[in-house]
Amino acid sequence: MTAAGTPRPPVALITGASRGLGAVLARFLVNQGFAVILNARGSPALEALAEELRRGGHDVESVAGDVSEGRTQKALRAAVDRLGRLDLLVNNASELGPAPLPSLVEYPPGKLEGVFRVNVIAPLSLIQELLPPLRASQGRVVNISSDAALGGYPGWGGYGASKAALDLLSLTLAHELSDAGVSVVSVDPGDMRTSLHQAAYPGQDISDRPMPEVTVPFWAWLLNQPGSLVSGHRFQAQADRWEVPV
Amino acid sequence: MIAVPELPAMPTGPGADRPPEERGLSRDGVRLLVSSERGETSRTFSDLDELLRPGDLLVVNESATVPASLPARSRLGPLLMNLSTSYGAALWVAEPRWGPGQPGPLPLEPGETLDVGGVPCTLIAPYPGIPRLVFLQAGGDLAHAMQRVGRPIRYGYSAREFPLEAYQTEFARVPGSAEMPSAGRPFSARLIERLRAKGVELAPIVLHAGVSSLEFGDAGPGVAPMYPEPFEVPRDTAEAIHRARSRCGRVIAVGTTVVRALESAMDAGRVRPARGFTRVYIGPMRPVRSVDGILTGFHDARSTHLSMLAALVGVTRLRRAYDVAAREGYLWHEFGDSHLIFSDPVT
C-alpha cells in the first residue's frame, strides 16, 4: 500500500521482452493492470515497445542490458525497488548459441558456456537478487523452457541441455521456496514464429509455426491458478490440456 | 491450432425452437433414436431404462448453466457479451455479438473499455486464431452481474427467451456452463430413479461448456475451432468406470462434454482422476477409448461434435443414423430429440 492508501498495481518483470513471446506477455499483462519491467539486450526494440505501452497509459520501466551481467541484474533490482513490489518474474531471455546449430561433438565449449550463462546462471542469479520482493508478495517465477530440454534433437543439444538444467532449477527451487510461498514453474511454449526459432533455421521458411500470441490462453490459465497448485510443474503452453493435481 | 480434416457434410433436420414442455411433452418425452451396429430404432427417451442393462454406467456432467449473456455498451453501441469461460474471477473468454442471431467478429481493439452488465471491462486480447472470441478483464464482479441482468445464451433459431430453469438439467450442481450440457436435459427424476432401481450406475464429471456457436471455418480452413474448457474427473468416477468395465458393463457418456472430459483424463488406456482445462479434439483420427456409447442430441453439419461421434462409430454409421433422423423428422438443437449411440453391437 502506498502512503495514500491506494493499492499498488501488481508488477511483472520480463526478460527478453522486446519481441516475440516476451512482448506478447508484456502486452497481455499491462492490459490486465500489471506494471511491467522490461529487459532486453537490444535497446531500440525495447524502447519502442516500452513507448507503445506507455502511450497506452501503462506503467513501464525498461532496462536495456545483457541479463547475464551483474550490472543488469542490479539495474533490474533497482527498477523493482522503484515500483515497490514484484509479483511475477518471467525468465524468458534465451541464448540459442551458434547458428546453424552445431552437433554436440563439434560444439565449441566456450560457446556452450555462453549458452549456460544466459539460460541457466542468469535466471538463477535474478531469482537470488529478487527473492526478497518475491517473498514479500508470495510471487511467482516462470522459467521459459523448451521441448529441446527433453527431445535430444540433433543440433539442439547445447540449447536443450541448458533448458534441461533450467527445468531442474525450477523444480528444485519450487521445493526450496514452497515454505516462502514463492511458486516456480517451467513452461515450454512450443514452436513459435520467433527470431530465436528463425535463427535456428537460417534461410528456412518457418511461417507454418504459430505466432507467439498462440500462448495467450495458457498465460491466462496459468496466472489464475493458485501458485501452490502449479509450483514445481512443467507445462506445455500449446498442449491440448493443462492440468493441476487432483 | 489443431488442423484436422473436416467431415463430409451430414444431413440436418429441423431445429427445436422451444423446450419440449412447450410442445406438450414432458422432458423425458422427447424422441430417442437408438443406433447400434445393427441399425437404427426409434424410441422415446423415457424408455432409456429398457435400453440399458444392470451394471451399465452413465457418466453425467454436473455443470449447471449460468445466465452468461449480458447486455453491453461499447464504442460500437449496444451489443451482447456472451461470457464463455471463466479463467479466474476477473478474466473471461467471451463472444461479443450484435445480437442472438447476429454473430461477430466485432471490430473491438485490445485496451478498449466497455460496460458489460454494469461492470467496467477491458478487452485484453483477441483469442488467438478464433476472431469471434476475446479475452475480457473485469473491473468488478461479472458473476454478480450475471445474476442481476444475465440471460441464458440463445441464438437466432430459438423462438424467444426462456427462463434459466429451461436450461438446467436434473444433474446440474456446479454453476459454470455458458451453454447447457444439453444431453442431460431429457432426464427426469422419475427416470433416474428407475435406472438406479434397475442397477444402472451414475457417476459425475464436471465440464463447463463454453459458447457453442463456433464451427469449422471460424479458426481458418481445416482447423477445428477448439478452445479450452475447465473440467474435472473425480477419483470416484474414474474408479466407477474401472468397476463397470471389469463387470462387463457399458460406459455411456451423457453428452459430448463427458466424452471430452474422460478422453482428456485418459492415461495409458485408463481414465484417471484429472482436473484442469482441456481442448482435446476428438475426431476420426483420434479414436474414443473411454466409453462404449454416448447419449447426445443432433448436431449441426459443421460442428466439432459430429467429428467426435464419427470418432466413436465411423463416418459411415454416423451418416446412416443422420439419414434416418433427418428423414423421420427428429429435432435438432438443445431442446430437440436425443440420440443413443452404442459403439459395439447391442446384444
Q: Which properties best describe this structure?
A:
heterodimer; A: alpha/beta; Rossmann fold; 7-stranded parallel β-sheet; 44% helix; 15% strand; B: 347 residues; alpha+beta; QueA-like; 9-stranded mixed β-sheet; 6-stranded antiparallel beta barrel; 6 helices; 21 strands; 19% helix; globular
Secondary structure: number of strands of chain A = 8
Question: What strand order characterises the main sheet of chain A?
Answer: 3-2-1-4-5-6-7
CATH architecture of chain A: 3-Layer(aba) Sandwich
Classification by helices and strands of chain A: alpha/beta
Quote the CATH topology of the largest domain in chain B: QueA-like
What spatial form of chain A do the alpha-carbon principal axes imply? globular
Subunit organisation of the chains: heterodimer
The interface involving the most residues is between:
A-B, 24 and 33 residues
Helix-strand string of chain A: EHEHEHEHEHHEHHHEE
Our count of domains of chain A comes out at 1
Give the helix tally of chain B.
6
Uncertain residue segments of chain B: none
